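Friendly challenge for the regulars: who can give me the structure tokens for this chain first? No prize, just bragging rights.
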Amino acid sequence: MAKCKSTIKGDDKKEQLCCPLCEKGILKPYIKDLKFTYRGHKTTFKQEKVFSCNVCDFENLSKEDNKRIERALIVRRFAIDDSQPRGYNAKQNFHSS
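First reply, four minutes later:
Bragging rights claimed.
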């Protein structure tokens, strides 16, 4: 994530994270549930920290959280695929809801 040139005024001199999409907004953290659906099976990751742009509404996770969630979704997809009967259409798309 790009770093903004401006810093927060006052005692807290941390650099702010600029939005990589619009390059105008600031990414601010908030907590939200992330819901995914794969072949009709729903998976929810509760209370995840998400960074959202205050200008264009772009959302992103930290690198570590993204890796953790992707790994969990891969395991979930394999478990669902293994439970499907032979001949089931394996080309259905995985999508976020």
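Residues 6 and 88 are 54 Å apart (CA to CA). The beta strands are 3-7, 15-17, 27-38, 41-53, 59-60, 94-96. Your move, everyone else.
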